[in-house]
């Protein structure tokens, strides 16, 4: 029985993976005997392109500034956050003042990695792919309504105030 590799999409990890229909084996790595060029001919290869992730998913990064009325007013940076919501919004605006009208993902990630109150700061604010129902409603609505490559206005959630940058 010879391998019958195809590319499928993992709903739990929100990433494409390789599946051999003949053996039932799956892997995250390119299967032996295949190259970057040959995997493009496999069934499901379109799933490897970020633009072709399932339509009900988006990918975004965010810059979160918590305030004293946030659901959990502490972060990896500060044990006890005492700033007001207005001060948090002012911080967001100050941190992104140099972005101009069309910030890049790199600019956004650089600021988020240092200043975001979310543990995603370690990944430049990247939250990966998510679907409706996985985020707080205001965050979800703002993200799904943003075009890819755009940054939101201030988004207020129970977690704090955010800028969101949609990446896919």
TrEMBL record:
Keywords: Isomerase, Rotamase. Pfam families: Rotamase_3 (PF13616). The keyword Cell cycle does not apply. It catalyses: [protein]-peptidylproline (omega=180) = [protein]-peptidylproline (omega=0). Residues 1-33 form the WW domain. GO terms for cellular component: cytosol; nucleus. GO terms for biological process: regulation of macromolecule metabolic process; regulation of primary metabolic process. Residues 55-168 form the PpiC domain. It is an enzyme of class 5 (isomerase). This is Peptidyl-prolyl cis-trans isomerase.
């Amino acid at each position: 029985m010879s391998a019958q590799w195809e590319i499928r999409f993992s709903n739990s990890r929100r990433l494409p993976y390789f599946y051999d229909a003949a053996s039932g084996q799956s892997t995250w790595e390119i299967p032996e005997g295949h190259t970057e060029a040959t995997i493009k001919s496999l069934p499901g290869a379109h799933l490897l392109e970020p633009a072709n992730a399932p339509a009900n998913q988006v990918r975004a990064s965010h810059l979160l500034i918590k305030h004293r009325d946030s659901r959990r007013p502490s972060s990896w940076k500060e044990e006890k956050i005492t700033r007001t919501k207005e001060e948090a919004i002012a911080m967001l605006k100050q941190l992104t003042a140099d972005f101009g009208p069309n910030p890049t993902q790199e600019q956004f990630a650089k600021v988020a990695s240092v200043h975001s109150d979310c543990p995603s700061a370690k990944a430049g604010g990247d939250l990966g792919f998510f679907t409706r129902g996985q985020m707080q409603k205001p965050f979800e609505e703002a993200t799904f309504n943003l075009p890819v490559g755009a940054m939101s206005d201030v988004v207020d959630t129970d977690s704090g105030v955010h800028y969101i940058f949609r990446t896919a």
